[in-house]
Specification:
30% helix, alpha/beta, ABC_transp_ATP-bind, globular, 12 helices, nucleotide-binding
Length: 325
Amino acid sequence: MAGSGTAALRDEALLRVEDLVVEYRGTGREVSHAVSGISFDVQAGETLGIVGESGCGKSTTVRAVLQLPKPTRGSVRFDGRELTTLPGGAMRRERQRMQLIQQDPIAALNPRRKVRDIVAEGLDVWGDGGERDARVAAILDAVGLDVDLVGDRRPGEFSGGQCQRIAIARALMLQPEVLVCDEPVSALDVSIQAQIVNLLHDLADRFGLTVLFVSHDLSVIKLVSDRVMVLYLGKVCELGVTEGVYARPAHPYTRLLLDSLPVPDPEVTLPPIPAVGEMPSVSAPPSGCRFRTRCPLATERCAQEEPQLAEVGPGHLVACHHPVV
């Protein structure tokens, strides 16, 4: 079956993902359906936030875009070039233009190397070491670090927030066009998260980056994203301009996520959220709508027919038989 939302894809998009499927085989005949036929696109200079509960397929989706590993099926077109059919060497060259920032900044850095060498690693690998020291100093300054103070030290001497700044500097050294941020602040203290989020937002504007930003924190997604895509159990529930989705969520799952956000006002009393149980297993997803087993609006149709993404407003797509509009 074709993935939902294909008709809404834009031809001029820098990144175009169509009918993406990622499956993992376990013991025996068990198959984990991590991502099941999703489609989306991202225009140059745009930030797409990808949000959902743990296990919904967020990280799997963005890593499949980078071909780490290649998806089971589907199309990933970057700047008009199909990535899924590229041989290893050609794909490796394309990754210079698409860099990844990982969740755990300390584990992502080699503890035995000096910071200046970690940041310059891309230049060293690709033989583009001209003015190496000047470029390292400039990019470290862009992320708020002084090369004279940190260049000859090692990652173990820094906090998590400082290590994430170093990881961001390393990702930017090859002047990528796309930056994939896979839960870049979830491992950091709350007091540091805002600093890193603001830094990424400023760097995206400064360098004209196209960003895929993965997070389970809806507050963070709202701050950084132009559009937001809500995933549930490997499927797209809702996709649209961030302000519109947050102001008028149409999918019951999106409403559930937003209702779970704390309100910073002691005078506000909120209605209780109905008990909806746990997310089903990706190896045995429900028939029809995958959210139906937890949805208060589910009907027999939801069990028999899989909903497809459809517009409920300009650029606002929802996969639900009973959207709240």
